[in-house]
Amino acid sequence: MAKECRQLLALIGISCDDSTIIQGITCDSREVKQDWLFVSLQGMSHNGDDFIDEVREKGGIVITSHPHPDCYEVSDPQAALVTLINDYYDSPSDKLTIIGVTGTNGKTSVCSFLSQMFTEFGQRNVVIGTNGIQLDGYCYATQNTTPGMMVCLRVFLEAIRRGIHTVMMEVSSHAIDEGRLGFIRFDRLIYTNITQDHLDYHLTFTHYQYTKFKARLYLKENGRILLNQDRDELMEMLHLRTKGIITYGLKPSHVQISNVELRSSGSSFDIGQLHFETCLLSMNNVYNLAACIALFKSLGIHSHELCEVVSRIEAPAGRMEVLKLKNHTIWIDYAHTPDALRRLLEFANQVCIGRIITVLGCGGERDQDKRHQMGTIASTLSYRAIFTEDNSRGEDPAEIIKQMSVNVLDNVSVLIDRQKAIAFALSISMKSDIIIIAGKGNEQFLIVKEVKIPYNDKAFILKLTEEEPL
Ligand SMILES: CC(=O)N[C@H]1[C@@H](OP(=O)(O)OP(=O)(O)OC[C@H]2O[C@@H](n3ccc(=O)[nH]c3=O)[C@H](O)[C@@H]2O)O[C@H](CO)[C@@H](O)[C@@H]1O[C@H](C)C(=O)N[C@@H](C)C(=O)N[C@H](CCC(=O)O)C(=O)O
Ligand SMILES: Nc1ncnc2c1ncn2[C@@H]1O[C@H](COP(=O)(O)OP(=O)(O)OP(=O)(O)O)[C@@H](O)[C@H]1O
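Structure for UDP-N-acetylmuramyl-tripeptide synthetase, as requested:
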């Protein structure tokens, strides 16, 4: 229904007699067209006010928090934007089942598992996350794990237009902190874990943890939180919110995991009377699957079909991905936090009959405190650790490796060039060994200085060995 400017502005406490029919609403000047409303927001690196002239030249109408000629003024532009979006676009969150997945590790895996499960149950769905936006077989790259509000809005509207009702989205702490969630309201919010990461941004773990907890404020009225009962750091949520929480875990939980068996070729476990078999590896993935099963149960789907559906779930690329070649077993995993790396290597030690050879780097211009921890973990839990580059950005990779090496054993080799490091790992490994290539997962690039050089660990290995996976 056509909406006049004066009707919309009345909703945010501005009275005017402008009867222009508004054609769209945005906080991004690049989207503005004739007769669009532009709400100017202050960001981390840009100020929306810097684009006022551009917006006005395109025929847009500006709302800002500072006095500006020919602009409307509000005290809280972010709140105003949410009100306007919900009115103009008819509360898009209400027309969708939106599942947020947050935590330090496991977001991409859980979203991928849920998406595969919904698809098996015949429900088309959208995934928004680190691997981009996946919608009806198309994948659109995004800059962020949790994109800005306008990108999410356009995705939601497109999903509604196509008759898709389910959205899974990864929720980063940055997005919560910067108010990027805006108008989004979740039906379910899954917390996988909170461990050290992003201290470059949050400075303290407590700030990081409580920022993650703030996502609860974006739940719909009857929304539910699902959390891993075995993670102590998540238990404080039980004090912040007392209703609508569903727990899963080995400890007494609403969705109780038991009889877990972890093998190098897959895992099995029980939940209640149901027995699950999966080709996915490690306890992490048992927890991730339990989160998905808890979610389906919370939506009223309890059936035995869940067992069959779970048995067909595949690992997303680069997340505990097993690459079996004639003479080598390689695990490619996105572990890039101390917790994820420790769990990965402990599991490898549990199931490997040979030696563990680990190739690892740490990202530049990101949480520096992770480096010595990850270096020590890799050295302690591997037969040989090979330290190498990983998205060094503006930093010197040799300096990053030096920081990784402060407390390591004498089983560490350094080969800055990632391809040489992987080639070395292959050259020293035997059939019974597991080579673990950690940190980059399925990334398709290596960031050196400002440049994104096309590169992928798996593609490089297949090219080097001239083999097809078995
Ligand atoms: C420091 C930081 O987090 N920055 C993010 C933030 O940028 P910002 O606040 O500076 O916003 P901005 O894009 O500069 O613009 C401010 C305002 O001006 C408007 N604008 C901007 C440009 C323009 O031409 N016209 C215009 O109107 C914008 O629409 C906005 O309303 O909001 C933008 C989207 O809304 C993000 O793309 C951007 O992410 C940058 C690129 C980034 O690297 N962020 C990282 C730290 C991040 O967010 N990472 C997490 C995941 C981390 C993980 O789990 O590994 C993520 O969710 O990706
Ligand atoms: N439930 C879990 N608990 C702890 N570690 C996990 C869990 N699930 C996955 N991991 C580890 O974390 C790594 C990253 O997994 P995934 O990409 O699913 O997480 P993410 O939260 O999406 O990370 P990012 O936001 O950085 O992309 C995996 O490769 C694995 O090593």
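Residues 103, 105-109, 130, 145, 170, 192-193, 284, 287-288, 319-320, 333-335, 340, 343-344 surround adenosine-5'-triphosphate (ligand 2) (CB under 6 Å).
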